[in-house]
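Quiz preparation item.
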């Protein structure tokens, strides 16, 4: 199984991804590590990424997923996965790739971004991400509110995975 923790910046993808990987005793990879330096620089300067910026990034993450699958490994990755077409690339038609959508309100997300330091993402891009977001339906992702504690989020995800 490959779990992709998704959502806009500030949703807590990295923390939840790390916690899920620990509970599942598997590897964790942050999708931000696959961004090109050009993408990181654009976001740092407050310039939204375009689809053309994202396609190579998504294909690189998909290649990492395929590598994990070939090894028969369970893994947790993070990726904003804002559009269904992005999720389709990452899923690659595999039934064992599942998404966890961390859902939050603008105010909660903005507050979290304001408290964060040392990240290349410019908080002014939050609205751009929310405008781009195509909220996944229940056929696409497990949805969990970011207003729960991280422990509650992880427990909820693990319970819902068991049901699938």
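Solution:
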């Amino acid at each position: 199984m490959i779990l992709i923790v998704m959502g806009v910046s500030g949703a807590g993808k990295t923390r939840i991804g790390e916690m899920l990987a620990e509970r599942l005793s598997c590897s964790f990879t942050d999708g931000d590590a696959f961004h090109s330096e050009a993408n990181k620089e654009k976001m740092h300067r407050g310039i939204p990424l375009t689809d053309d910026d994202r396609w190579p990034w998504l294909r690189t993450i998909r290649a990492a997923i395929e590598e994990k699958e070939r090894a028969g490994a369970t893994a947790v990755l993070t990726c904003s996965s804002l559009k269904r077409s992005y999720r389709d690339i990452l899923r690659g038609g595999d039934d064992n790739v599942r998404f966890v959508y961390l859902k939050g309100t603008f105010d909660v997300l903005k507050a979290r971004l304001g408290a964060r330091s040392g990240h290349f993402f410019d908080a002014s891009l939050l609205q751009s991400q929310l405008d781009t977001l195509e909220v996944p339906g229940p056929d696409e992702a497990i949805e969990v509110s970011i207003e729960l504690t991280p422990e509650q989020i992880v427990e909820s995800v693990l319970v819902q995975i068991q049901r699938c």
